[in-house]
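pipeline: protein-struct stage 2 | run 1193 | Transferase family-domain-containing protein
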Amino acid sequence: IPFIIAESPDITIQQLEEKNWQPSSIPDHLVPDLPVTHGLISLPLDVPLLMARQEPIIPPVHDRSLLKASGNPPTHEHPEFKLFKLPTEASQAMPPMPPMITKLFHINRDNLKKLCNVYSGEHNLVSANDALVAHLWRLVTRARGIPLDAEVICAFPCDGRKRLKPFFPPNYFGNCILNTVLKMLVSELINGSQPNLALQIRKAIDKVNDSKIRSSIDWIEQQPNKSEIKLNYLA
């Protein structure tokens, strides 16, 4: 297991924890469903490791045709994307964003295990990530005081490398990440079954397959102004 130590004498932990970040359009919380060993990150870190072990270095693959559009219409709906036109000079300026509040939470191994037991129910189909996402989604939605009849969205970044057929080459240089979303009424989210919520999250992630990924590429390709494409939960 390689251990990477990075030193930055000009930045302190206190600076990172200060709550004076500039407001920006970011999600309320992020719990990714993808490994750290990913494309742009893993290859530069793997090369020194292979050199130290005196193992052959596999050159990176830059074949962008692996994610080329097919030229056909999309075969799936893509609620994870939204076309968002920026305001023109003649239109009304966008309202300023409200101040953002940040908080760091630490969930130890024991608490994560308890959380998994609560959200797993009678089945073991959900992962620890599913349980954590479900729990955070419920708590954040409840804290925001959203009306019970409103619809909310939870988005998941998924690693598409092993979901494509054939699989991506392990030395592909770049990312293959697709966002998928789950929509739900606030009343169902807060008052519904906890195991069912985690299971719905797992099903939404499992729907990201080769067909879905290829369809999303075709959907993006067909948009005349790609600068208007935004992730649905950021628009």
